Amino acid sequence: MNQEITRGWLGRQVARRFKARKRSKPIVILIQEVYLRDDIPCGSSLCRSCVQESPPLPADASHYLILDANTLIQFMEIWELPQITGVIYLSSVIKEVLNRMNQHYYRKLRSLFTDRRRQSTFFDDEHFIYTWSLNSDQTANATQSGKRVEAVAGWFYEHLGGSTQIVALQSLDGSDENLVKNQLSRLSISDECRALQVLTVDEYIKEYWHHDTSVSDLFSSLMQSRAESLEARKLRKEAGQADISVRRGGKGAYLYKEHLSVNSIDAEVADGLLRVGVFHVDKHEPLEGFIYPSNKGEASMLAIFVPGRLLQNRALPGDLVAVRMLESKLWQAPKKASQRGRKADSKTITEQELKLPYLIDEEDGPSHMADKNGKLIDDVQDTVLVEEAVPTGVVVGILQRFQRDYVACLAQEDEDSLTQSLSSRRENFLCVPMDRRIPMVRLNTRFAERLVGQRFVIRIDGWDQDSRVPNGHFVRLLGPLGDLNTETTALMVENGISDSPFSTASQQELPEDTSQNPWTVPEEEMSYRRDLRYTHRTCSIDPPGSKDVDDALSVRRLPNGLLEIGVHIADVSYFVRQDSLLDLEARAKGNTVYMVGKTLHMLPSILSENLCSLKGGVDRLAVSVVWTVDPETDFEILDVWFGRTIVHSRHQLFYAQAQAIVDGQNLPPGWEITGGREELAGLESDLLILASFSQIRRDMRKANGAVELISSELRFETAANKEPVGVETKQELPMNWIVAELMILANSCVGTKIYRSFPSAALLRRHAPPRLDSFSLLLECCAARGFTLDTSSNKALADSLDRMRDSSDPVVENAFRALVTRAMSEAEYCIAGEQSDPSGVYHYGLALEFYTHFTSPIRRYADILVHRMLLAACQESSEPLKNNEKATPSAILNLVLPSQELHEVVEHLNERHRSSKRAQKECDELYLLMFLQKHAKAENAVVIKILPKGMNVFVPKYDLRVPVYLQDKKGSVILPAEGDSDSETGEVLDQANVHVIVKQHGSMKINLSRSGETLCEYKLMDSIWVQLRADGSRAHAPKLRVRLLSPAHPAAKASVVESAGKVHRGFVSLVYRLPRQIIPGKRKPGREDKKQISQDKKKSLQDIVKEFAVEQSRLSEAREHEGSDALKRKAAASVYEVTEDFKRRKVASVYLDMECVCSSGQQQEDAVVGTDSVAAKIGSRFQVQRYS
Amino acid sequence: MDFISPEGLRLDGRRPLELRQLQAEIGVVEKADGSATFEMGNTKVIAVVYGPREVQSRSQQQHDQALVRCEYSMASFSTGDRRRRGKGDRRATELSLVIRQTMEAAILTNLLPRSQIDIFVQVLQADGGTRACCINAATLALADAGIPMRDIVASCAAGYLNSTPILDLNYLEDSGGGPDLTVALFPKLDKVSLLQMDSKIPLDVFEKVMNLASEGAKAVAQFIREKLMENTKQLVLAKGR
Fold it and tell me: Where is composition skewed (Polar residues) in this entry (chain A) (predicted)?
């Protein structure tokens, strides 16, 4: 190791700093060393003297900005806007900010200067010998820190020689004209030359950002909310000083207890009196909050319940709060049974939120569910038992507020008052956020008329003690309420999905592909990539109309009877280089989001739809996985090859087309493929081979315990105005499963490969076994029907589901499978070495040891990372290595991502995946409800739970779990609707109380009250008919209404007829068997082949070639004696000459003379086939250069 | 908390491979046979050597080699809060043993049979890396006492934070949760006398950190040598001629 211990620092000072610490010791003196140096680069591309690699500050910026602590904190949102670039963050300023706020703020600040797209830099002025000053305490007042910022600005100006404008910002209070003048005179710059400016934020925005309305609007709105809160504080102070008794009651009363300061919280946490955790709230019970306190990063099992506004003390969902536990006699019980005894896993919160449709509001059901106090009765039990109380606590302080954009609209009453009395000069309005967990927010704005009937984005500023609601400021308008576009955008904002276009800088990194200058495979790529264009028949199978083709498949028959099955994936990592702007943007997005009618791509379309996509008829770069299999022994995999290739996809098929081909049907017009009948026959045999191969792999997984899950996807037909006019569930063909199985196999092989090379850093995908309590509902249902559901392992579960298939109604069985799918935990990305869970990296659902995402790099960022890791593992990195570093896999991997960052990226990708899944689901539900608003639908449903006054049913078609009530608030029975469309909206109430409902264990009956005769009975797992429709709601999305239908209802009858025609295929159990004559030229002794393959690797080059020659001659003889084959191919080759300069030049030239006798006109291909098989055999060990 | 800024500077402005400021003074306690203070940054240690002298308890006398005893203590004012530490403190006992073993390996004990060498080390100011500083101070004190040694013992500590090996941690970095590896070696003989680490790290990381600490120790050895030369020159001048 030749690391040099240098002494680069020039001087040393000892700094005394004061810090406020624990309550017992208010002030602590810290003695720290400060090493001063002069080798700190300035970070500017304009600088010619500093030694720096890729300086972030741009050369073409109009100005560089230096902020001081006050402006940084107060106007943080402005500096977070993407337009603000070229900012210099000083270490002294950052330190001051962190002392003012708290340490958790650092992550937010860090992203401002580490994200390369912001083109900002971090300058360590405290250790730079020219900008260091003796009094650099944090307790310096504003003038002191102001002087520092100006000193640094002056140094920058001198250092860059005035080549660009430097602007230093000062806070509003304390800007001193004289200071500015003194500074400028000291630098002997005249007032006319304004290359160095010291401005207030106000002046700065006016001068430099008057053209950009988003910046100036945000600034004015922030100023306004600040002014308003300052005023309110002043008023409160005056009121408080005037009359102390006002505090106890009346208008100035403090509703909430004061929060503790961060320092005292830290002290108490250390003493064990307080717990810290993130505050979560259930969407259905916004007044019940939970905290799962974490001790040093490990989630504990304890869940602290915090109900009601008083105890919550102004905490909002997502905040990091400190909680004090109450004594056990004050503990309360939560209303939802599922909240009790939950394991503390912050991921389960989002699971629950994902699965329960957010639009079904049980609170808003018939309000008979409330008792006379207005409190809601639990639907599981009628009385709240004391034993069910759980540990309860009260929030005493907030360590960090969760900051994000909220979508909201004006509260109804405020809107009405606005429209009625336009002359009112009110500035405070209440608005309702779309997210039900957030309380109403007070908005201070002068432009309230603009907000009437619109959805807009707000941010929450804070929540004062004496205010019932938090206050916030307006950020931007989205559009009119109820408009589909607006609602979709609102969903995207709520889930953090941005739809801003790709920045111009990143677009410059894209390659050109125009008609004048089309893109072709570059020369250097051809030199090291394996060329599969002419030797493999490659095809791709995707949904109809898809333009981003990620994957292609190919089958090749080797002369020795083995098969080469290849999966080729678009080589995105070639176009998207490590840490390029495209890479950073794609990383931030995480994946492509598919919403109804709108797709937000992760990569620009020139890549995703053209250059990366494996379209039919063009040459494309790919990363391939090629298996050598033996068709004789059940497609046993003998060898697997990974690497970069060039492919040429001949046929771009869609599923229905591929299915028709493999079934041997005649193709309807428009579905034909190029190449004529020979090609079609070849393609058909290829697809059959793939089908058999995938069938066998599927059976293997099933034997290992893979659980077949179903996910229902909805497809909407939209009219011209984007409104949904039809909804269908996606039909799955066997071809879907075949392709999926091959992708699963590819993913699994790649996962295994990168795990073996990088056991501590491989990016894998794991699926934890489901939590046992998530099956409680299902177990009850099963018991009611006499089934047993064995949940001990994935195999046991799969077997139980299979047993059920044979003995029950397919609708019920389907519903059941869907419910099991819901009970599963979420799969997530993980890093191989960092799994502390006992299940490790195992994938429960697929029953695979190692699994990762590899096959869709165009639409998922994780796949791009896996590509890079795979290529590093195969030692084929395209990134240049540092000098003298050995090209080991680890060295190459370090280029991929340093381990610290990998961890953060994985967390980020998991969160993005969850958010986009949630957004997609919410968008689907939105469209579904919009559709149901106009057209009520009668659907099949399955009873899954009996409630006191009704039941929970599951609608498999839309994957919804909804309650159906049989009794309204007055107690009269709601009868199943038998009538026709007249009473569509009203419920059929039994006014005369002729009927009564009887609830028994496991069933619900409607009886005639007088005679006790049963009219209808509903048991668990019964299949019934319900009518679904939706009502609009203003602030939130439309609400679903469910009505029970009797079998005699005409709509129910119509649907029965409709669905009888369709075969409900939840999964596939077709078996593909390979006809013998598909594979030509099979040799009789199959076993020898295998031995040869394994021994091949040990033989030398010459031996291989000699063998090949012998083989070929034998084959040609054999064929002459054999009868005719299905395809009648004959190829003969003779080895002409072998020159072996091998030992000297590591190159052997093999000259092959190919003599092809073909009867079907595929001469060239056969010639190539021959050389190719030699090359393939050799290629596993040596490099092959081909000359034609 | 970023221990290494995006630019590569640590919290106190050093780069990951830089040592703190080294200062040493020899002959600070006139009564003792040998004494020295050693400072690495803000960590200040004083070492005092008594010996070789008569063994104080006959039972412990060894007929063929010298008896080396070592006592380590931290002054109650050495850390931020004034804390009284008893001599039976576990950490003090462990460190005493460790320093004793390290120095014993360096001293040519068979040249001084039936005698006793006492090394007293006290930390006056603790800011990370006290172990290494103690060993360095003891080396200087032994040299000042004129006790024959195989080679000087130089020692340095290194760690691993933010995926970078860091040399000579101070207190803040030490409490950052990463590994803390101290190495003491004989620079001319290139042999390790002490290697101590208190965490779990993968092997390739360990290699990097250990190599870094060894390089650091060699740089400290260079400094110790210079200090000794300077001291000797002064003594020569004081003697005249």
Answer: 501-519
Q: In Å, how far is A5's CA from the nearest CA of chain B? A: 6
Is A622 part of a structural domain of the chain?
yes
Tokens coding A132: 């260091």
CA distance B109 to chain A (A): 33
pTM above 0.90, yes or no: no
Distance CA A1024, CA A1047 (A): 8
Collect all residues of chain A within an 8 Å Cβ-Cβ radius of residue B208.
1
Q: Same domain, yes or no, for A943 and A1014?
A: yes
Could you count the other beta carbons within 10 Å of the beta carbon of residue B235?
Answer: 12
Whole-number percent of chain A with pLDDT over 90: 9
Which A-chain residues 729-788 have CB contacts (< 8 A) with chain B?
760
| Number of domains chain A is built from | 7
pLDDT at residue A1071 above 50? no
Residues A308 and A234 placed together within one structural domain of the fold: no
Pick among B2, B4, B10, B12 to test the A interface (most A CBs inside 10 A): B12
Residue ending a domain, among A400, A430, A449, is A400
Note whether residue A1059 is domain-resident.
no
Residue A652 and residue A554 share a domain: yes
Helix (H) or strand (E) holding A718: strand A714-718
Sequence-separated (6 or more) residues with CB below 8 Å from residue A992: none
Kindly state whether residues A50 and A25 are assigned to the same domain.
no
Instruction: Give the model's confidence band at A1162: pLDDT under 50 very low, under 70 low, under 90 confident, else very high.
Output: very low
Q: Of B14, B205, B207, which to mutate for an interface test with A (greatest number of A Cβ within 10 Å)?
A: B14
ipTM of this complex = 0.91
Nearest CA of chain B to the CA of A831: how many Å? 16
Q: Is residue A820, in this structure, part of any structural domain at all?
A: no
Output the CA angle A576-A581-A585, nearest 5 degrees. 85
- Is A61 touching B (CB cutoff 8 A)? no
- Residue with structure tokens 């099992």? A301
**Least reliable range by pLDDT among A481-495, A551-565, B214-228:** A481-495
Q: What domain range is A29 assigned to?
A: 1-35
The answer to which of A546-550, A730-734, A1128-1132 has the lowest mean pLDDT is A1128-1132
Those residues of chain B whose CB sits closer than 8 Å to some CB in chain A are 1-2, 5-7, 9, 11-15, 17-21, 41-42, 80-81, 127, 162-163, 167, 170, 172, 202, 204, 208, 211-212, 215-216, 218-219
pLDDT score of A62 more than 50? yes
Indicate whether A354 pLDDT > 80: no
Residues A996 and A952 in one domain: yes
If pLDDT is split at 50, 70 and 90, which confidence band does B115 have?
very high
The answer to whether position A778 is within a domain reads: no
Residues A43 and A29 in one domain: no
- Nearest CA distance, B211 vs chain A (angstrom): 7
Residue with tokens 């890479």: A583
- Identify the residue among B18, B156, B220, B223 best suited for mutation to test binding to A, counting A beta carbons within 10 A and taking the highest: B18
Same domain for A1013 and A1116, yes or no, is: no
Q: Which of A9, A19, A53, A98 to mutate to test the interface with B (most CBs of B within 10 A)?
A: A9
- Nearest CA to A162 out of A25, A274, A46, A6 is that of A46
How far does A412 lie from chain B, in Å, by closest CA?
46
Quick one: pLDDT at residue A1098? 40
Burial class (CB in 10 A: 0-12, 13-18, 19+), A1154: middle
Shortest CB distance from B42 goes to which of A31, A114, A899? A31
The larger pLDDT score, comparing residue A517 to residue B192, is at B192
So what's the pLDDT on residue A1048? Answer: 67
Q: Which of A963, A960, A965 is nearest to A952 (CA)?
A: A963
CATH class of the domain defined by B22-237:
alpha beta
Please answer whether residues A391 and A324 qualify as being in contact, where contact means their C-beta atoms are separated by less than 8 angstroms. Answer: no
Range with the lowest mean pLDDT among A284-293, A1034-1043, B186-195? A1034-1043
Q: What is the pLDDT of residues A488-526, one digit of tens each?
A: 888 888 888 887 888 877 888 888 877 777 888 888 888
**Contact assessment for residue A496 and residue A404, using Cβ atoms and an 8 Å cutoff:** yes
- pLDDT digits over A377-386, tens only? 333 333 344 4
Nearest to A86 by CA among A105, A107, A59, A109: A59
Which residue of A lies nearest to B165 if distances are taken between CA atoms?
A3
